[in-house]
Specification:
By secondary structure, the chain is mostly helical. The protein is built from 8 helices and 3 strands. Strands 1-3-2 form a 3-stranded antiparallel β-sheet. A hairpin with a 4-residue loop joins β2 and β3. α7 runs antiparallel to α8.
Length: 193
């Protein structure tokens, strides 16, 4: 299996972004939202920082642009203007015109959108979860196989039922989180404009 750096360095790609820089820039949720907004815009379209702050505030508040609070929007605007957009401009993710209060996508922007599929701070580490579930199942099966009390009193049907219900509940939870992640991505891609 190819490393992510190898995949991102394919010559047909418009730009290859260094993984460490991309993860540093995209470590902040608001910066990821800026990249999502740019992803949906035309490549040459300038986007107003005021619009960015309103849209990002609406996403953070889980409401429409019309339903946001001025203080919350002002806080987002200030953090974008003073912190996030200058850092993104310096990294080449956006072209930030502070005087005009606008940003425009750069040639590097598309390279960062690939990382949005990789970076997700709210995702459950499922590999660890399933490893833990397997360990619990093994810890239950071992004393049953060795006839250790009180486990020797459990019937095979009880053990299979427990394991089946645990696996089913895990699959339902995993499906729910995957669907929620997809919905969050859809909201971030197609929000109010």
């Amino acid at each position: 299996m190819a490393a992510i750096e190898d995949v991102l360095a394919i010559p047909d790609r418009p730009s290859a972004v260094e993984a460490e820089v991309a993860f540093d820039i995209l470590s902040n949720r608001r910066r990821r939202m800026v990249v999502r907004i740019l992803e949906e815009a035309s490549p040459t379209e300038s986007i107003d920082v005021d619009y960015l702050s309103r849209q990002i505030t609406a996403w953070e508040e889980g409401t429409s642009i019309d339903g946001i609070d001025y203080a919350d929007r002002k806080s987002v605007y200030t953090s974008l203007q003073q912190l996030h957009l200058p850092a993104m401009d310096e990294a080449g993710v956006v072209d930030f015109d502070e005087r005009a209060g606008t940003i425009t996508a750069t040639e590097e922007t598309e390279g960062y959108t690939v990382y949005l599929e990789v970076v997700n701070e709210e995702d459950v580490p499922w590999h660890g979860y399933y490893l833990g579930l397997a360990a619990i199942s093994g810890a239950l099966l071992l004393p049953i196989a060795l006839d250790v009390a009180p486990f020797d009193q459990l019937s095979a049907l009880t053990v299979y039922a427990f394991l089946t219900v645990s696996l089913l509940a895990s699959a339902i939870a995993h499906t729910h989180f995957a669907r929620q992640r997809r919905l969050d991505t859809d909201v971030a891609r197609g929000g109010d404009r």
